[in-house]
Amino acid sequence: MGSRNAAVLITLLDAGLRLSELSSVHYEDAHIEEGFLKVMGKGSKERLVPIGALEQKVLFRYVFHFRPQPLNEMEDYLFLTLDGRRLQSNAIKLILRRWGIKAGVPRLHAHLWRHTYATNFLTYRCGDIYALKQILGHRSLEMVDRYVHLASAPVAKKLRGKFAWVRGVGWSIDSYYLGGRELYTITSLKQAALMAYEQAGVRNPLNEIDVIELDDLSSFYELMAYEALGLCAAGGANTLLQDGLVDFDGRLPVNPSGGTLSTNVYAASGLIKFAEASLQIMERANGHQLPRRRTALAHGATGIAGQGNCVFVLGE
Questions:
Q1: CA 48/CA 40 separation, integer angstroms
Q2: Does the pLDDT value for residue 253 go beyond 80?
Q3: Which of 31, 42, 45, 139 is catalytic?
Q4: Is 18 assigned a catalytic role?
Q5: Which of 86, 133, 138, 293 is flagged as catalytic?
Q6: Annotated catalytic residue: which of 77, 117, 147, 226?
């Protein structure tokens, strides 16, 4: 394969293939017209890798105009050297190195293309992480998760505007049976809040949180939640109300959107609290927007007597 025609290799690396996979594709496994290649990945596991219109174009061009004749029937690979032998991974590395030097990118390597493909796949919403896991041939979603973080910043810059970022997440569930827990306190909410605070680096929620969207299932649950969230000591929630600290114009406004008591959408109230808290950070809470808020807390609850709770800490 001459350097002029090596562009087909570069193009296919853009589809997320490994060097070993690229060099071992059999001719009969290249379903160019259908838009996919069958490759043998790590652990001798076969998978189908989709290719786009550009990849189809360069592959057709290579197959019909530049692919050498196989030396023998054993050399039934898609990519061949000029004398008809299988193009090995090391040969592709040399091609990449030569092209990288020519382009002024001396550290050009196949994994750089693979990472770029994965990031672009999520950035431009070509599919979800489950599809990306299948395409890349990873064994677990944890191996794909890093690309989610790499893709999030470019997406934000592309969409522009102000965004709310998740700084901390916590969740907990208490005993199902009412006799197995004390009903004057919400232990699972306390545990969920501590988990979220630790991730977000919050030490004093009363002073560091700017607005709260609370899933206030009842008037007394709201007071219990203040204590569980660490906004006051046990028995001190009434002072937050009496002093006006949690009013719309207070130091720590709670539920500027109206709260669950105002609009309780079954099984979705927690999600609404998350959305409302995000809108406050993004300064898009039309009709009930507060002055600039840097940090928000969103809370959701479920189960008998607030059995399960989750807490999100959001920030700029």
A1: 9
A2: yes
A3: 42
A4: yes
A5: 138
A6: 147
Q: Does residue 288 have an active-site annotation?
A: no
Class of the domain covering 165-315: alpha beta
109 as an active site residue: the answer is no
The tokens for 184 are 């004057």
Per-domain boundaries in the chain: 1-108, 114-160, 165-315
| Annotated catalytic residue within 111, 157, 162, 251 | 111
Establish whether 111 is a catalytic residue. Answer: yes
Whether 130 is catalytic: no
Does the active-site annotation cover 146? no
SS (H, E, C) the chain: CCHHHHHHHHHHHCCCCCHHHHHCCEHHHEECCCCEEEEECHHHCEEEEECCHHHHHHHHHHHHHHCCCCCCCCCCECCECCCCCECCHHHHHHHHHHHHHHHCCCCCCHHHHHHHHHHHHHHCCCCCHHHHHHHHCCCCCHHHHHHHHHHHHHHHHHHCCCCCEEEEEEEEECCCCHHHCCCCCCHHHHHHHHHHHHHHCCCCHHHHCCEEECCCCCHHHHHHHHHHCCCCCCCCHHHHHHCCCCCCCCCCCECCCCCCCCCCCCCCHHHHHHHHHHHHHHCCCCCCCCCCCCEEEEEEEECCCCCEEEEEEEEC
Q: Which of 86, 114, 133, 293 is catalytic?
A: 114
pLDDT, one tens digit per residue, over 29-66 is: 999 999 888 888 777 788 888 888 888 888 888 888 88
Residue pLDDT, tens place only, 142-196: 666 666 655 565 555 555 567 788 999 999 999 888 788 888 889 999 999 999 9
| Fold classified for 1-108 | hpI Integrase; Chain A (1.10.443)
CA distance 244 to 239: 8
